[in-house]
Every structure is written in structure tokens, then in C-alpha cells.
Amino acid sequence: MQYSITHNTTYKYNEIVNLCHNIAILSPRNTDTQTCHSFNIIISPVPQIMESYEDFYGNKVSYFVVEQEHAQLSVTALSVVEKKAVKITEEAISKESWESVRDTLIASSGDFLYEKQFTTATEITVPSEAIKEYAALSFTPGRPMFEAVHDQMKRIYKDFAFTPDFTTVSTPLSVVMEERKGVCQDFAHLGIACLHSVGLPARYISGYLETLPPPGKPKLTGVDASHAWFSAFIPGMGWVDFDPTNNQLPGEQYITIGWGRNYFDIIPLRGIIMSNNGHELKVSVDVRRLSAS
Amino acid sequence: MPDNTSINTLLQQYIPPDRSHNEIYWDDKNIRPDWKLFFSSLSSLGENEIKARSQVILRLLKENGVAYNVYNDPSGESRPWELDTIPQLITASEWKKINAGLIQRAELFNLLLKDIYGPQTLIKEGILPQELIYMHPGFIRSCVNIELPARQHLVMYAADMARGTDGRLWVISDRSQAPSGYGYALENRFAMSSVLPELFAGLQVNRLAPFFDSLQLALTNIAPRKKEDPRVVILTPGPDNETYFEHAYLAAYLGLTLVQGNDLMVKDNFVWLKTIEGLEKVDVILRRLDDIYCDPLELKSDSLLGVAGLLQVVRKGNVAIANPLGSSIIENAGLVPFLPSIARHFFGEDLLTPSIATWWCGQPKEMKYVIDNIKHLVVRRIYRNVAGTRSAIDGASLTVEKIKELTLEIKANPYLYVGQEKIHFSSTPSFVDGKIHAGHSLLRSFLVSSKDSFVAMPGGLTRTSYQANDFIISNQSGDISKDTWVLSDEENPLQPVKFQLVTDSMQTLQTKRSLPSHTAENLFWVGRNTERVINNSRLQRTVMQYILQNNNSFKGENIATRDILLQAVTSCTYTYPGFATVDETEKKADLFANPWAEFSDILYNDLRNGSLANNLSMLKRSVYSVRNFWSLDTWRVLRQIDEGWDIAKKTASTDHLGMIGTIETLNIYMFAFLGMNRESVRREQGWNILDLGRKLEQAIYIVSLLRNIFQQKQNEQVEYELLDAVLIATQSRITYRYTYRDHLQLPLMLELLMLDMNYPQSLTYLVHKIKRYVSLLPKSGNIGLLSEQERAILEADTMLKQTNSLQLSQADETSGEYAELQIFLDDLYGLLTHTSMLVSKTYFKHTLSQKQLFTANFS
Question: Cβ–Cβ contacts within 10 Å for residue B814, how many?
Fold first, then answer.
């Protein structure tokens, strides 16, 4: 399936600002199942400085600076992405127990260096006692890792209420765990923390999810949103994505921008302005099908 | 030369605990020759003289403003620096070994830093566990693979060392991002050589100055594209930082500009310094800021101390930072057990200086050892914690309960902990309370990169503690420092340390430096606050004296005078409600009849806005924020103000004469401070801004004084007393008498205080000065056009030129109001405050803060 994605972020400041530094990670990566055919970033006003580089995780970063007076900043990312639908077949599913995976990683010297960096908790994904207990119900002794992670995803979906505006990006996971409420990035962080609590590698994925209108209705513009889920490393299968928000293995409708240890490694757009006043933010995302391929 | 007996008498109290190594003895009986020489010099001074000199040292350090701020100290006070009269002595032969060990260690860390942020060979080859690096908060992923042009990535390195019972020096910890202490070391040497030069007799003590030359050279050498004469700044977190004294001191000594994060900005992929003349490119930053605070865009997003976009400039190779961002990874106690194999990997040789035995809990066997032996170990996190909290715990001090907690914590995050052997320090003599006692010392050595290697400071900062088991010595917990004498065996006569502090005000002798706008703002407020203190104190004193002269008993006419004056005190100092209270008549009458409690409050209560104490602390704050601007003598005066005020405050009472006395003493010192400034600050932008602040404040004060006192025509007696009070409060009575040789009348007084061109207290004179200073400030755009602030002050000048005092002193026939005067003063007040506001807006551009944009919430 080919998609055209339009992701606009607009800041309205309460005063004129003449310096604004930004970092955007909005350019979709190429993966085994995804090819980014084109990516453009349109910024208004046109920035004086624009640089691109790859970050530590290989995500494509745009750094830009607006060095002129402006009261509004608009950033539009336009991407055309082709996504393959790949179903995980029954035979491909690894039967290796999660303990065995954990021990393999601990014992390995050099083979799994890259994957190992995702086994340790970050400040955002600290597995509290409550999280450890919660994870233990899925990671029962001897259970195959894939099955356990899948169960974990399902339980997060079942036990937690999707509640927009209850949390912000800085709400600690302990609150999410306590209240059993949150949005996609909270559930992704929770999934990661559960895996870390049993010593398994997991990473955070930032991307988009195509939403389909109710049958018979036309699709409205800008109703889609940035989305986040997590990915687990399962030897023999590689990195396998799990979406606890929707209780499914991300398929054709999921477009990946990139990944990191948690949200803060891959914030879509962040910036610093020189100002003593406030500002407003508006975001719209539109994921449209171009053709079936 | 005194014999052994007198030395032994001197050392009577010095009884080192048997366990620890004894630094001054060769063997069981004989004192080391260098110590013997030193103690001979000491004992020939005599006990009383030593005591007296050590007082002089304390005094000198205090007057020089050497202080160490303690974070989280509720009183916000800084602790005076203390220096022992007995230095730490290191012989030439021992130093050779230490020096080689330190250089090897610095080179090792330099290569380690390059490897961690580059190819990560050590991790790939299994020499270093990945978790040890990746789990450490000092590993900054966005710094990986940034190419730094300089050969030496590590510019500065410091090691804390202690002598074990075996007599060897052991490295306790490593400092690699913004090591502090070398400025204090220099100041210690300065104090010792000026107060106790006799003690250096016969000892060839290495000089410290060459180390600072090396530092200067090292900073120049890392400049992007080998630029000659690069602009180097010292980035400080600001006056609240514990070692702010040192930042300012080094700036002055090395002739560098001291800046805070908001003095800098990133534009066009370069770093710029905001000065009142515009932007100037910065090539090298010596940072005294922990790395994660340096860039709110890419690192700690809520940091207000850094510069947004700094890391990108580093990426572009357009600025060099010493030490590079990310170097705090080396301050990682977990690295210690791996250093020997890293040394073999890099150099094919063993580590020369031993580190204290350390077990990293990230390995199962080591974790078990630490947990099993926790009572005999020191447990430390692998990164230094936020200020104020301890990052090391002595296992022996823990209860069973606490040990359990700690064990669980270690098991939950094994990567983050190490256990370290407790080392017993050797004992070293310290001069305390007039006697020599045994203490324990910790030596911090400093190294700086030089060509292909490093050079160590032949000296260092030694700190002592008297608690036998205190393994964590830091100035935060209050210890005494020592000068460190590294002896040379070469026969070169001792060269006394002579150096001159290059304060910012003198710097221009060598090169023209523009004023950072932050400094400019502080200078402006030094000017304004100085005048505010003086004016406020004069007014309070005048009114207090008036009340006293009337014996506190008022009736009839002088009640009116009293009420007007008291209300003026409140309005001119902005200490509302005070005497301007709108309370019911009875309460008000009571307050006016007994004003002394209110006087005492607006004098001593520093929490009250507008009080003299409050004015004074604002002044101190602004002075302190530009501390590299003042000469040593100025510091002395400031100390006197501080001490005098502290004493007055402690005895604060409603004793009327005492209060007046406090004010008078303060005033004398304020004029000494002003005099110092006049003498020692060069007549350049810095001075212009400072004096502009003073003149604006003074003009505003005179306007508000007149405006508040002459609202309504009063009867002759009252008017006479008010005129008299205004003249006293502006120190103008004598000038008035001399000029007019007449009794007091309003038109003549207005003539003197408003229109006299030659009288420094008159508005016309002040406005002329302001006009001149404003015109001297740098201008952008069309030079021919007047700036907004020039126009505002020109208007004030024109108003004064076009008026006359007779016209202004006309009272309205029916209402009795001085309507003309009031309108005139109102307008003038508006123009003066507007000018001040425009100057701030135009030149103090750093006042905008760096604000984080919201990030989108997901759904």
C-alpha cells in the first residue's frame, strides 16, 4: 500500500519571536517492510539554517533555525511511503522461552551488542514493583517469548482505558500504572518497562496509523494522529512490533518514522524560542492511500 | 636555627593515630628533612606570631572575597574559605612518580573518551561492559561520532588522591567535565606567599603560574580552524553556584570573559556573545556547567543555564568546548576496575598510580561480594548525584534496616553501583586553634592538555578533615584547605608568586573587549542600587533626626511637617502601606506618634521591599554578579559594609540613636565604595552604564522627593521645616546657604535642586549627564538619528530649560496646590523612568528566556 502522509504542526506565539531552534524527527525510515519514496519538510517562515543528519539510532533528523521575526511557526512534513503487508506465519513464530532469550543475551559477548542496549531501563521506563508484578503474569515460567509479549500487549489493551488528555508526555509511568489510563505513548512505555522488568530488549516506535472512516462515509482531513507502539527483539524473528493501544501486531496500516529507547529519544518536533510569553500548538496528521500495490 | 626540642614542643599535640601513615616522619623517630626545615621556620616565628599570621590569612581571603557557596543553604550565605598555615609538602622524588602516574591516567582517559564517542573498540572487544557506559547518565548519545578536530579531546582532568597507610597515593575519584579547585589553589598560594613568606625559606617550591600559561595555551589550541587570538569565554551557571568565586577569579586571572548561558546565543551555526555593541563570535568555551545543562534543545530541555543549539555548533566544528560535552562519562566509578586492562590495551603497560579497590555491581560475582561485605565498604553510585545529596554511603554507618534497603536497591539497579574499599588516610599536621593536630588530607591534582600529552600542576588543592573516617571530603561538608608545595630538587631560588588580577575593568589595557549585555545590566543596577541605598538612608536619617529634635512630642504646626515627612518616607522608598496607610484615624495617629517600630522595620527587615536592608541586599547581589569587575580594595570595602551591617542587624533595636548610627556608618562605606569605583573602573562602556544607572536613580529620587513633599502650600513655619528637611536629605543645606545667603524659600531651593547647571545634585546637571551617557551607548542603524532613549532624555532636558523656578513655585490660589510643580514633576518622572526602561530594552537583550515549545501529545 502506498501512503501520502501530511503532518502539520503550527505554533502561534503570544509575541514576536526572532530566534527559534528546532529538531524534527519526521522522516520515515526504510525498513524491511517499508520504503520511503519521498520526504519533504516545508517550514514557514523559511528557516535560515537547515541541516540533516542521522541520530544515534539511525533516525533521520532535521535541525533548523528561524532567525527572523515571526509570530507563527508552521512545520509540514510530507512523505510518500510504501508499506508491505507481511503476516507472521505460524511457522515463523519462535518457540524459544523468554528466560532462554534473556540468558542468551546476558551470556553473549559481542553477538547481541546492539540489541542488548535496549534491555536496560531508562528513567522513563523504570519498572516499578507494580510493573514487575504486572509483567510476571504474562512472563510465566517457560513461556515462549513471543507468546508472552503478545499476552502482555493484550492485557495492557484490556486493563487500561484509552483516555486522551489524562496524561502528558511528562506523566510518570507509575501514575499510568496506578490509574490504568493513558494514551499510546504511555502504553508503549508500559510495554517496554514490562519487558525490561524481565530483562528483555524492547524499543519505542514513533509513527503513524491510518484510520479508516466508518463504512460508507468519506475520510475527513487531519483526523489521523501520530502514533506510538513498541517493538521486542526475539531471536530468530528479529524486531517484532506490538501495538498495545489497539491490541494488534502492526501491519500495513502502520508507518514507522523511527525508534529509540523511549519517547524522548524520538520526539517528532521540539524547539526552543527566545521569549517571555506563552504560545499555542496545533497539530494535524493526514494519512491517505495513494494506491494499492 | 631552633633545635629539635623546639620542633618537638611544636608537635606536641600532633599524635597521629598509629594505624595511619605518618607524613612527616621518615621512620619511627626522624622527621623528614623538608618538614624539619619547614618546622624550623615555623617555630622561629613563635606561637603567637603564627596565630596572628593565620588570622591575617583568614582576613585576607575573606577580604578578597574567596568563598564557597553552599547550595541549598537557606540563608543563601557563602562560607568563607579557610586555609591552614601548614601546607602539604611533596618531595621532588615522590612528585616525579605522582606526575608520571597522573599523566598516564589523563592520557588514558583522553583515549577512552575518544573511543567511547567513536569506534567503541573497548566495548566491541569486551574490555568494557556495554552497560557500564550505556547505563551511565553521562553517556550522551547525541555526542557519539561527532568529530572533534583537536587531537586531545580531554583538555582538563583532575584526580582526587589520598595517601594510604602504605604511604602511597591512591586515586579516589576522577573529575573530567568541569574540574574545580585550581583557582582556589592559586589563591591559597597567593595568600601563603604574601602572609607567610618566611616559611618558604630553604624550600624550592614549584611555581603554579606556568600551569595557568599551559591552560591558556591549551584553550587557544583547541580553537576551531586553529584561529589565532580566539575569543575564549568561561561559561558559569551564575552567582548561585558553589564555586562562582573561582569562575570569576579565573576569568580575571586568565583575562577571559565570564558569561552565563543567556549571554550567548546560537545563530548561523556559530556561538555569539551578546554585548551592548552587538554580537561577537565565540570560539572556545571553558565550561563550568555540567554537560547535560549545556543545550536545552538537545540535552536537558528545561535547563535555563545553557545555550539552545550549542551541540549543533559543535557538530559543525565551529566552537570548541573544554571539556567536550559528554566527558562526564569518565567520572564513572564503575570504570575503575577496568582501568588496568584498558591501560594494557592502549599502552601495553600497567597503570602507574593505583586506584582505590572498586567492585562494579554490574557483574554478578562483584555484586555478590559488595552485598556480602557491605558493612566494610563504601557504596557509591557510578555518577555524581544532584547537588546536595550524597552519592557515597559508608556501609558501616547503616542500620540493618538500611542495609536491607540498599541491598534491594543494588539488586534492582546493579549497573549503577560500585562498592569501594575504605581507605585509611595517612595523617598530616594541621594548625588548629593555635596548636598542631593530626588531620587527614585529600589532594586534588590538576592536569591540562599540552601538545601531545598533558602537564600537571606542580601543586594542587589539599583539603583536610579531622574525622578519622570521613572518606568523603568536600568543601560542601566544610573542611579546611591547604596550600600544596611540590618541592623541586633543582637549585633555583624561590620566585615569589607575583601576579596581577586583570579585572574586567582593566582588561581593555590589552585588547578592546565589548561588554556582555548581562554584565552591562548588572553594572546598571549596581549604579541604581548604590544610589538607592544612599538616598534611602539619607531620607530615613533626616526624618528620624527631625523626630528626635522635636523630642518625639508634637503639637500644632509641627504635626503637619511630621506627617508630610513620614508619608514621604513611605512614598519615596516604596514601602507601602507604611505611613501612607489609609487605616482609621486612631490607628494612624498612633503610628505617627510612635513611628520607631516602623522605622526599624524599613531599616532592618530585608524581606520587606524597599527597606534599606532590602536595597542593600539587591546591591550586593548586583555587585556579586559582576564580581570580576571590582578591585581587591573594593572587595575590602564591601566586606566592611557587610560586617558592619551584620553587627547592626544583630543588635537591631528601636534605640533611636543606634539606628541613626547604623545609617551613618553605612553611608560612609557607601561613599568609600563609590570612591573605589571612581578610581578603579576605566572610563569606558562599563563605567558609562554604571554611572548612567546612578544618575538616573538620583534624578528619579529628587523628583519623587519634591513631588511628595511639595504638594500643597503650607504655612510659613511648616514650609520652612520642609525646605530644610529636603536640603538635608539631599546634602544641600550648605550649598544653599553658600549660594543664596538667604533664608529658605521654595523658588531658590527649586533653582538649586532643579535648574543649577553646575550643582551635581540638581536635575539639570543629572539630566545632562544622563544625556551624555545615553549618547555614548553603541547605536545600530542610522547614526545620525536620535535613539528613542536619546529623545526621551532630550525632552526632559528641554522641559528643564524652558521652565523657571518662580513659575513652578506658584500655588493655586483657591486650592493651595502646587499644581504647576506637580504636573511638571509628573512629566519629568515619566520621562526618566521611560529612559531607564528604553535603555534596558535596547541593551539588556539577554532578559528573554529560552522557552521550550510544547510537544504534541499523542493519542
Answer: 6
